[in-house]
Design a protein that fits this description.
mainly alpha; flat
Length: 229
Amino acid sequence: MGDVIKNIKEFIWDVIGYLIPGFLLIIVFNLCLLPSIGIEDNFLIEWEKFSDYLIVIISYILGYVVYSLSDFKALKQDRLLDFLVKKLPKFESYFSKHKNNHWEKTFKESATFKNAVLFLKEKGYKDTDKMKINEIRNILMSRNPSMDQKVYTFMFRASVFNNISTILLVIISLAFIQLFTSLKGLYFIKTTPQFIIIYFIFLFLIPLLEKGKKRFFQIAMRIPLSNTK
């Protein structure tokens, strides 16, 4: 019975985790995109009859899109930082701190990680020195299921921060693309003075959201390694 409840909880977390970013993307698109690019209500079916269900379904699907874009963003960010390190070696330490895997290298040198590895060795686990932080964390979570709720909570918060950052970056990118398409008379995003101010606010919020993501993600990763049983 306990496993059934646990699986139901994980399923709910999974559904909510994709619904929220997908629904937020719809809201932001509805706010920033020009109404003229929308599809008419009578396209193929009577959309009004199924509107409530369709919003949920589309939000869930778009949630996967947002997660994929978040992964793509992280990949391109690291590649950009690698490029900047090569071009500006004097600032290597600064750029390296902003890479997604920087905290892992630092954390592996911490007493918390070393004690967790030693603990698993004493419990008979092999090759712990070669394991990644994720692998160590998963083993410790399986030994102490009471930590699951805390870990999932902080991982969920990290995902929310990350996905909001991605959505805002998508809007900023669309506004930037329109600078070029407008030369051909193609407009798809609002660029009135009020919205230009909003886009600058988005641009300011992105690095703050990234910091929040890293903070909660690191907490989620540290919890199991700080509570060895």
